[in-house]
Amino acid sequence: MATTKAPEDAYTAEPFVPGKAGALAELREAAAGCRGCPLHRAATQTVFGAGAQDARVMLVGEQPGDQEDRQGRPFVGPAGKLLDRALAEVGIDPGEAYVTNAVKHFKFTQAEPRKRRIHKQPTLRETTACGPWLAAELALVEPELIVVLGATAGKALLGSSFRVTQARGTVLEREIHGRPERLVPTVHPSSVLRADDREAAYRGLISDLRVAADALE
Ligand code: URA
Ligand code: SF4
């Protein structure tokens, strides 16, 4: 007997993305109801991108963390604070950037209720499922430059063979649907917070972000 795939097996945000969204608000509203993969079940809410539609630079992270999940905004926790400081240091106004994540729901493990929720890396399948939201954001914002923060964002934007260590601090250029795209990959700001030598890791992030700042001039 032929079986049809249940929606929960589909693993794609595609059916939830409005076909011809003219504004980010429209996308954000639709994304609030996304059930394109199982991650929406345990998370508090969809954390959509934030920033102006005419932003020149788009920053793409991995997924919301604990704070982001509670507040509904990307990069408001410790990694976001570090990122804002680093951006300001290279002369990119964080308030003028569009900030988003490859995956829009927080994935975590929790030993028991009321215990701390521990971030869990999204799978390639989940990242791919969420990809239509990122594509829709890119199509509307059309940033001059995309800063790719870490491996998950890199795989989402540049394919599964992406390696941060190889690509970081370089300007990658390509054409997507006839639209030129420039990307500068770097490490994820959370990796700086976890590094044994935080100062060295931070300097590395700054040096990559300088490449991005120069490319914007
Ligand atoms: N880490 C991310 O990748 N994104 C956030 O929004 C917060 C932390
Ligand atoms: Fe939809 Fe992405 Fe959330 Fe999965 S993670 S439910 S695809 S918004």
Describe this structure in words.
Helix content is 38%, strand content 14%. It is an alpha/beta fold. 38% of the residues are buried. It has helices at residues 24-31, 66-71, 78-90, 124-141, 151-158, 164-167, 189-194, 198-216; strands at residues 57-61, 98-101, 108-109, 118-119, 145-149, 172-176, 179-186. The longest helix is centred in the C-terminal third of the chain and has 19 residues, at 198-216. The chain has one domain (14-216): Uracil-DNA Glycosylase, subunit E, CATH 3.40.470. It is globular, with a radius of gyration of 17 Å. The protein has a five-stranded mixed sheet, with helices on both faces. Helix 3 (78-90) crosses helix 8 (198-216) and helix 4 crosses helix 5 (151-158). The model has no long low-confidence stretch (mean pLDDT 95). Strand 6 (172-176) and strand 7 (179-186) form a beta hairpin. The chain binds uracil and iron/sulfur cluster (SF4). The site of uracil has 13 residues, from helix 3.
Order of secondary-structure elements: HEHHEEEHEHHEEHH
State the low-pLDDT regions, or none. none
How would you classify the helix and strand content by structural class?
A: alpha/beta
Report the radius of gyration as a whole number of Å: 17 Å
**Strands of the biggest beta sheet: in what spatial order?**
2-1-5-7-6
Report the strand count: 7
For the record, the CATH architecture stands as 3-Layer(aba) Sandwich
Say which molecules are bound, naming each kind only once.
uracil, iron/sulfur cluster
Strand residue percentage = 5-15%
